[in-house]
Amino acid sequence: MKKMINAVESLLEESLNGFAKAHEDIIQLNHQPHFVSRKHKAKAGKVALVSGGGSGHEPLHTGLVGQGMLDAACPGQIFTSPTPDQMMAAAEAVENEAGILFIVKNYAGDVMNFEIAGEMLDYPHETVLVSDDVSLPKDHPTGRRGVAGTLIVEKIVGAAAEAGATLAECKSLGDRVNDCTASMGVALTSCTVPALGQPTFDIGDNEIEMGVGIHGERGREPMDLANATEIVEHLATAIDAELKPQPGQKILLHVNGFGATPLMELYLVYDLAVKYWQQRGIEIERSLVGNYTTSLDMAGCSITIILLDEELTKLWDAPVHTANLRW
Amino acid sequence: MKKMINAVESLLEESLNGFAKAHEDIIQLNHQPHFVSRKHKAKAGKVALVSGGGSGHEPLHTGLVGQGMLDAACPGQIFTSPTPDQMMAAAEAVENEAGILFIVKNYAGDVMNFEIAGEMLDYPHETVLVSDDVSLPKDHPTGRRGVAGTLIVEKIVGAAAEAGATLAECKSLGDRVNDCTASMGVALTSCTVPALGQPTFDIGDNEIEMGVGIHGERGREPMDLANATEIVEHLATAIDAELKPQPGQKILLHVNGFGATPLMELYLVYDLAVKYWQQRGIEIERSLVGNYTTSLDMAGCSITIILLDEELTKLWDAPVHTANLRW
Fold first, then answer.
1. Which tens digits make up the pLDDT trace of A264-297?
2. A77 to chain B: nearest residue by CA?
3. Do A208 and A152 have their domain in common?
4. Residue A3: inside a domain, yes or no?
5. Does B5 contact A at CB distance below 8 Å?
6. Which of the listed residues A2, A181, B106, B223 has the most CB atoms within 10 Å of its CB?
7. Per the CB < 8 Å rule, is B5 touching A265?
C-alpha cells in the first residue's frame, strides 16, 4: 500500500488538523469528540443542519460546512460511522433555537447512530435519509445506499434553512429532493482502505464494476471494460428508468469522480451524459462536475440527476461558502 | 489501460466540449484552433492574460479562465504544447487595447511556440516564464520546470491586471512572483498517458519518486517509501534551501495533488508542512490545498511556498471567478 500517511491510527486526526488549519476562516474543529462546525454560528432561529459519516469521501461532509450549507459534520474513521457522542456534541454546539436536521446517508451504522443521538437529544430534531443509489432495487432489505446525491440534498436544504425555513419544512424539502434524485456509479479500480492495506475488491484488467458503492461495495454486475459512451449509456439508462423524466423536464446533472479520476475524463463523461438526456428532450439546467463524493483512491465516477423545479433551482443557486464548494 | 474515454484521438475534443457545456456561464470554447476564453470579454484597457500548455493538468489552465484570472487558455494534446496558431487566435480574441501577457511554463515546446506566436502577433506583448520546480538545479541547461507555482502567478497577476496594471507592471509582477515561489513534488505512482497505454515510468512497490515532474519526468532521486513526515521534510527542506525565508516571513503554502491523491492525504501533508515552517518561525498567511496542477492519474503531491508581502497578499485575496477556482 502506498499512501502519504504516518500511521493508520493517526491518519484521521492529522488530516482533520490540516483541514482545520487550511480553512480556519470558515470552520472550526472540535476534538474529543471530533466534529467540524462553522466558525461563525448562524443567526438565531435558523434550523441547524448536521451531517456526517465515515471518512474517505472528502470533501463530503466536512468540506461542506459553512454559510448556505451544513452547520456541522461528524467524521468517523475511514468508511466507519461516527459515534452518537459526536453527533450529540455537534448538534448541541450548533443548535440555534429552531431544531436540528440530521442528513444521513442510508447505511445501517450511520442510521443507527444518528437514531441513538436523536433519542438522547433534548432539542426538536428530524432526519432526512438519503438513498439515491439506484444500483440496488427499491425493495432491497436495508434500502438503497446514499451516495453523491447527498451533496445535492445538503446544498438545497442548506439554502432553505439559511432563508428561514422551519424544521418541518427542511425535513419535507430534504425528503422531496431525495425522492427526485437518482445516482449510479462505476469503478475502474478498487479503493485501498489504509487499515486493510490492500484493494477492497479484485477487478480484472479488462473489467469494470457497474453499480459500485462508495465504500468499495461490489456492483450489481461486473462488466467488460467498455468505452465511455457505453459506460454512460449504462448508468444513464438505469437512472432514467428510475426517475422517468419527461421531455421538457429540467434537471441538475452531477458527474462525480471517486477520487482518482482525472477531470478530463469527468468532463468527457459529462459531455456524453448531456447528449444522452438532450436526445430525450430533457433540459440540462444546472451542473456540477468534479470529485465531491469520493471513495479514497478509487478510479471511476457516478452520474446523478435531480429533477428541478423553480424552487429547487433557486435554492441550488443561492450563495454557498464552504471549504470545498462555493459560489 | 483503464480510462473512461472513447478513443485517444477524440479525448481532448470530447473533454473540452463537456467542460464548455458545464461552464457556459463563465467561458466559451473556440474550435479550430482550440482555445478557451472568458464568456464576457474584460473591460477595455485591461491587459489580456493568455496561458496554455499540454492537457492532462486540469484544472490548469482552462479551469482558471475567468474574472480575476486568465483571459484565455490554449490546451494542447496531452502533455504536448499547444501550437502557435492557437496562441495567436486566443490572443487576438481577447486583446483589449492594453497588450497581451503570455504566462508560460518553462518547457522547450511551450516556450518555442509562445515565442513564435509572439513574433507573429501585431499587439504589444510580454512573456512570464514560470520555473518554480526546485528539483532541478538552477543552472540546468533548459532551466527549471514550471509546475504548481504557475497557478499562483496566474492568480496574482490576474488580480493586478483586473485592477488596471499596465503590461510592463504585469510582466514585472509575474517575474517577481516566480522569483519568490518554489515547488517540489513526489510521486507514489506513475501517470498513464492514454496514447502510450502504460505507465510512463516504473516504480517499485516500496519506492517513491522524489522531485518528479508533472509529465511523469523521473525525479532527481528514487527513495524508499517513507512516511508522510519524512516525505514532507524532504520536500520542504529543498524548498526552504532555495527561498531561505527568515523568521517572521509570511508565506502562502500550496499543497497540490497530482490527480489521484485523496484530499485526506493532501490535508495531512498540509498539516505537516505547516508544522515544518512554523517551527522555523515562518507565518502561514494563506493556503491552497487540492488537486490543481495535476498529472492525469498520478498519485502524489507537490508543496509550493510563495514569500508574501502586503501587495501579493492583497492580490491573492482579490475576487476570482473561474470554473475551478473561485472566491
1. 999 999 999 999 999 999 999 999 999 999 999 9
2. B264
3. no
4. no
5. yes
6. A181
7. yes
